[in-house]
Amino acid sequence: MSLCPGFSFKERSIRRIELNRHCWLNNVKFMLEPLDKAILTAIYVSSLEPEMLPLEYLKVRTPISEDQFNVKTKEMIKNGFVEKSEPLKLTFLGRGLLKIVLIGGVFDIVHPGHIHTLKDAKKQGDVLVVVVARSSTALKINKQRKIYHAESLRRELVSSIRYVDYAIIGREGTLYDTVEFVKPDIIALGYDQKHTEKEIAVNCAKRGINTQIIRLNTPIPGSKSTQIKEELGHSIYDI
Fold this sequence. Notes:
Layout: H1 9-31, H2 34-48, H3 54-61, H4 66-78, E1 82-83, E2 89-90, H5 92-96, E3 100-105, H6 112-123, E4 127-132, H7 135-141, H8 151-159, E5 166-169, H9 175-182, E6 186-189, H10 197-206, E7 212-215, H11 225-232
Parallel strand pairs: 3-4, 3-6, 4-5, 6-7
Antiparallel strand pairs: 1-2
């Protein structure tokens, strides 16, 4: 019996190739050492911010030496995971070994709800990229919103959270311009974010972006920035 009834021979062949590739990548992922995955992550992050060299990114997070880095990257080039180029880039196979999760927010006041949401988002993949909304973007959504911290400070704050692999400031334009830039495998939504899964899926599809949309549940649903501001007002900034 055919595994893909109703499909043409060509379609079945394509599905078989995709299934074999999926199984191969999963087997390789299983064999990857933590340092290997850290290096792949560093090269991916460098593609988002070219000024951030992979080795510089790694040294903040691991006790890796330059010699170790060079040996490992040579192995990855040989295995077809990294391009032999300057700067280093992931090949299609190398990128396929990482599951990138994207989540966004304003993060003007970071509270326990944020921490639990980011922790949950990190569990969904290998690399967590957090998009910090531009002040102009946040005000377009809510003109009455008071934003106390500049986007660069909010990005610095989010970057210091250990579950976050990389934080970026959202690109000018729409959310989907940032999604096209990051190319995530998963877009995670906080439990109270206004965007709907269907809305994001439809807009991503229009741009040819293939990604999974999930909704996260925070263990502390009552911990919200708006509630904190309402109860404490400006005094929160005097603490």
